[in-house]
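Why do we bother with holo predictions? Because pocket geometry can differ from the apo form. Keep that in mind while you read this record for NAP.
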Amino acid sequence: MAVIINGKAVAEKICTELKQKISTMDKKPHLTVIQVGNNTASSIYVNLKKKKAEELGIKSTIINFEEKITEENLIKEITKLNNDNQVHAILVQLPLPKHICTNSIIKAISPLKDVDGFTVQNSGDLLNGAVPNAYPCTPKGIIRLLEEYNIEISGKHAVVVGRSNIVGKPIAIMLLNKNATVTVCHSKTTNLEEITRQADILISAVGKKIIFKDMVKPNATVIDVGIFKDENGKTTGDVDFENVKEIVGYITPVPKGVGPMTIACLMENTVELFEHQ
Ligand code: NAP
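The structure, written out:
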């Protein structure tokens, strides 16, 4: 049976260290989260982030704009935050309403305050193998988990299922930068099982149950990024955890796997941006 990777415990360790560090700071880091509209899932995520920030001694502000705000006005508001030296980290909660171009909004964030690491400068640095101001939180959390459990990345075949800008693409680049041989799969991949069975490290970021026991290699490491509700309303991930854990070497559960690491890395990024400014 696999070792269950305890993301919650690693995240708590990161947060405890951050809290200690912040307690010694005269001036506190300030994270500002922008939410447009009142999408329920977004509100839950935004409030979770605020609660965790406050627990650690990070000042946090949520700015809620009406769904109908124009792209131009949203960019103006972000520019104000860029110029406000009391704000150290800016997060725009995604998804945005359809009339707003997400890329234009991300471009408007100062790379120095880009706590998600999504701006062109920071993602370009990542692509170039340079150190960005901030690494995207979920991929950063995944790498941290692999390191905490001493899972070798260099020379291994890492298979990433999903190619979103927030998870799939950046984790693929980060694994490549750490000398893994990386294969990225997506909805048009025709031979998914054949590829996932070759993975020493399998990362699934899809949002539906897609990884079953006949798709994994014995002793592989499986990282499940997916989070969604099953037909009974239970929170679950992409991987058939109960059956897959009997075959692989390491596996993350959902919940208590990657999720808490994402929030911990967001807090860590906030503190790091504050320190750089
Ligand atoms: P996304 O933008 O919807 O991307 C999903 C990806 O899955 C796409 O690249 C899509 O391919 C691919 N895909 C869909 N069906 C597939 C199939 N049958 N075979 C192979 N690939 C398939 O999602 P996301 O934002 O990356 O999030 C993915 C999941 O992770 C969601 O459940 C989300 O809630 C969760 N998530 C969790 C955390 C965390 O902290 N734990 C953080 C972020 C996201 P195409 O590109 O071809 O459409």
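Residues 138, 161-164, 166-168, 185-189, 192, 205-207, 210, 225-228, 258-259, 262 surround NAP (CB under 6 Å).
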